[in-house]
Amino acid sequence: MIIGTAGHIDHGKTSLVRALTGVDGDRLKEEKARGITIDLGFAYLPLDEGFTLGFVDVPGHERFVHTMAAGASGIDIALLVVAADDGVMPQTLEHLAILDLLRIGRGMVALTKSDLVPPERLAEVTAQIREATAGTMLEKADILPVSSTTGTGVDALRDRLAVEARALGERRADGRFRLAVDRVFTLPGIGVVVTGTVLSGTVQVKDQVMLSPSGLTARVRSLHAQNRQVETGRAGDRCALNLAGDGIAKDAIQRGDMLVDPLLHAPTDRIDASLHILASEPKPVGAWFPARLHHGAADVGVRVVPLEGEQLLPGRTADVQLVLSQPIAAAALDRFVLRDVSARRTIGGGRFLDLRAPSRQRRTPERQAQRAALAIDDPRKALAALLDAPPFTWDVLAFARDRALAAAVLDDTVTALAPLVLDTGDERVAIDRAHWQGFADALVERLETFHAANPDVQGMGREKLRLALRPRLSPAAFALALQHEDVARRVVRDGAFVRLASHTLQLSPDRVAAWRAVEPLLGGEVRFRPPRVRDIAAVVGRPEAEVRQLMKSAARVGLVDEVAHDHFFLRATVHEMLLIAADVASHAADGRFTAAQFRDRLDNGRKVAIQILEFFDRQGVTLNHGTLRRIQARYLDLFGSAPA
């Protein structure tokens, strides 16, 4: 359980923590010399039954308020410190605003230096505090007079904090592991150590973790929680982790990094969020307003784009898009604080909604409905709302990752909602059952319309069909949708085309006989270098134009594909060549291969190999980058089904 102090400089926060715990939170030489807290200080108070209170002592000086924001993001209980002789001061108000923006829901106020003033002054400052906290999360917080010098009220405050902590209980630890890194250092004989508060989940010795946004992987060699060596750290614990791994060094890890379960590594630099602007702000926030964003221990530049109206007025809350100067690791519904670019004042704050916000069409009704759904705290209700809003589909793996949900929570959520799920491996696309039925019916209707307008065409291009339907599925999910029983019983995948099962093209009897004479010439050992139309015509003794027409007809019914002008390959051979290209890519560096590598596998000459690859380029199954190509794995089945 983490308790965070907050308040104006020299109001006795560090002295109070020392009186409560016996530990001096000031750990830096400069802090000792100047008598102020510059960086986050930590102290621990063991209670009975193994329960420990952790104290985060944050700096009060205006120059170090950004550090205060970093400390406050991980605390459970706020302890606002106000000196009885000074009363409420500027940093008191700013710290209070930050605590309120971060929604620190539990807390109390310590009225320090109470031994230095008469009772009338205590009453006056108490009234000031009540006025300052009105309308905030600490509006009804207890105010306890204390003196770190004489010890008056310290025991009562300690007991009150213990009661509050026990009432709050431990944080739920069923999410995936996240820790906000606020310190990194090395110890002789130990190595690199990072410290921070566990925001969700658990971590154990020997776990594999990842530093985000850098993507460095590490292994947890040892672990301390609340200043004691342990095997497991849980949500709410103040932890120090000794890390090991390739590239793990002090200068490779930054304050503001997030240590996460590897499945959560997905940095973002464009976020839709709900933002509240403090009523004290002198001006509204307009488009591309520059600011500093504080999230966890991260501090990055940001531009604010209002999504409701042209500007956001002081005292109001609205959706905005945050365009960051560099990626951060975050989770949906995380709280954040905005400060001005000169770091002199707090502007506002709020919470993240969509970590994968689009750069275009940000204000559409569809996006508004999605943000409203994403703002729902309960994952089951949020996902249900997403599936009931355009485009009526959502990747539940991305949903769980961005909310740091454990696998069991995701499974329970999906089971309860019972949508249709298309699992491609990289994504699990969920569609509400009613909307799925509408999608399947629309697919059939689209094909019926196409066949009526194009009765002599094999079918509709698969990619063209995918782009014409709503919801617009990814290519991999669309391929699975075509195989679902609701669709497959009515629809046939025919190479790069899709047609109704009832739609058939057949060669005339005379062309069937002619095809039987031609087909053997395209297969066997010469299948990777089949003869062209003129050569076929010479062998079978028919006019070249007649053979060309025969081959065009065979292509329409899916027997062959015209890879280059007058150069036709059997459909099965095209599929075989595609699998060979995929195998070449799998053995190539970065999955990129050359035409020469492909040619050597087919042994059919450079010119023909390049024509085949250019055909694959046109179909979208390969992507050409100069002299290198890579495979689009989601299209590997494009030529895999034989025509009916």
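Next protein, fold it too.
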Amino acid sequence: MSNRDSGVAARRKGAAAAVGRGIGMASVAAMLATAPLPQVAHAQTYSFSNVAIQGNQRIEPNSIASIAGIPQGQAVGAATLNDAYQRLVNSGLFRSVEIEPQGGTLVIRVEEYPTINRINIEGNDRLSDDELRPLVESTPRRVYNPTQAEADAAAITNAYQQAGRVAASVSPRIIERSDNRVDLVFEVAEGGVSEIERVSFVGNRAYSDRRLRGVLETKQAGLLRQIIQRDTFVSDRIGYDRQLLTDFYNSRGYADFRITNVSSEFARDRGAFFIQFNIEEGQQFDFGQITASSDLAEVNAQEFLNVARTRAGSTYTPTAIERDVARMERLAIQKGLNFVRVEPQISRNERTLTLDVNYRLTRGPRVFVERIDIEGNQTTLDRVVRRQFRTVEGDPFNPRQIRQAAERIRALNYFSNVDVETSQGSAEDQVVVDVNVEEQPTGSLSFGASYSLENGPGLSVSFSERNFLGRGQTLAFSYNTGTDSADSSITFIEPYFLGRDLRYRFSAFYNTTDNDAADYDTEILGFSTGFEFPISENGRLGLTYRLAEAEISDVSEDTSPIIQAEEGSKVTSSLGYELSYDTRVTGLNPNAGVLLEFGQTYAGVGGDNEYIETRALASAQTRVYNEEVTLRATIEGGAIHMLDGDSRVTDRYFLSSRQMRGFGSKGLGPRDLEAENEDALGGNVYAVARFEAEFPIGVPEEYGITGGVFADAGSVWSLDNTSGANGVEVDDDFHLRSVVGVSLFWTTPIGPLRFNFSKALQKETYDEEEQFAITISTRF
């Protein structure tokens, strides 16, 4: 035990002595009263015809006699009297107990514990009464129990330790009231926050301390230590960090990685902890030969091997093996082969540093799932948890599928704790799956103010509930207003429509622009709805219908004739689809990911517009230089092909500063230079390529600051109508723009901020350059 732990234990022991001083004195009195009993036990026995109860106020005499359990009219000895005494003391009802034989009468004198009048918590500031009261099991109008009061004090102390205040102490005190009542007060000394001054590693060669610290949930204290709570020491978090570190190394081929020790030392002079992980990385392994074998006549091993995706020469990762096992077991189910189990057998080749994998197909035990019991969900409906299981009652029991279901339940992020265990069912071939969850808040309401170089100052309010009415649905509302614009929307998402992996989405929106300095105003009102479902392991297909009315009004005489011709209101009714392929989460390579998207929209299902819009995006990310540097690349584009009439300014593309850095909103593309205000007209086609690198710049990582460089190239072009003012044709040809710059990334509690400093290398004379911008960073 450390010195700190010894001090806390001493304080608690002193508190317990103070609370139960009367108990100790009563016990001595009782022992004195019963001291002759051992002598009597050798010489004689007793027989009582009557039991007299004295000193009781609330508890009935018959109840006390029943607890003592002394038989009347039967011979009893000292051992029996001592057992009766212990039962009365252990009942927790009495401050003191005395047992005294008086001839044929057994006299039992008791002093009852007082009744709790009320319970108060004093001295707490960092944790509110609402947070601490649920931890207290002592109850007003119930008998005061000093043992329970100590347990309650320990629970409150633990809550402070979880909040990083390991020096906190809680002392239970009682205040005497009339009628044998007491007020129970928990006096809290919160102490200061015990921050984590340094997290270090010993034995790491492949990865730097900086990279490994990025893996852990525990963070060092930094510039925002008063806001970021993860820099406080929480002992329970260490176990989670051990698992995160192990998974990190295993997924990168280090099959022999192990943590030999984790030490945490408290420096009293600095009021902070120093945590050190002692690790052994071992060698990095690749996959060797991948084979399959079967002991079952009805199973063709080669057929099962064909569904495996692991290939020789790739970096070893347990995730690849787990997914191959899942594919093979799914194939067995499709072929009607129940209880077929796939056991990966790994053979080590130290000379080549490879691991050979043989998938052995065997017959598993004939065990079925009897039922799935779900407990602890107060708001969330059972079906929300149950649908995360691919197994239902009566199905063959598969431990791997149960583990995967537990991970899916945790991934919902509805629960702070999820325990999934199995127990014996009503028969030897039956198991019960027990799911115990602890719910956590899933809603958020936020208010904020912002400033944009594009739209000026603005206000925003948003509400989001990810588990609406406990049904696993999402309901979100947002309203954002700037100097000359206002956007509002409401969104509803049902992730399991009709109980299937079919995501339904409905969104309504209302957007306006109204600026005294603008040449025209716009108003767009509409809704969209659609479904999204998986079509492969990493692929999804979305189908969408959209109906919107866009109005262009208050067009100035000084604006472009092109926009003047577009004034009025038009309704667009469209159907669309989007295919996506995403390996960012489910990919086997932990350092790289790819996102591919392709979609088309046909407008002309009623309404006033008829066109086909095509969109495409390809994005990739990878880490290099021992994962210290992150490289990202994105190429995207879109095209509108009008089938009837001309496109309008509300339909065409305008590149934002997120899509093309270094230029303002509506800062590039076709522009009517003959118009007085040189209006940006947008284009029917756009294409952009973005490249960037993010890397450490020597600032301690606890400050959350990194640097980056970027280069963008792209353009917007093509109009259906190019008749400018005074008969001058508007130039809508393709003109390449390019820009380079540096970035500063800063991870803050309000979100990841990004500061961009840019310089345009290629631009047109009429383009509007933006050399500095602050945005909320969007990561790959």
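About the second fold: The chain has six domains: 21-112, 114-189, 195-280, 286-363, 368-439, 496-776.
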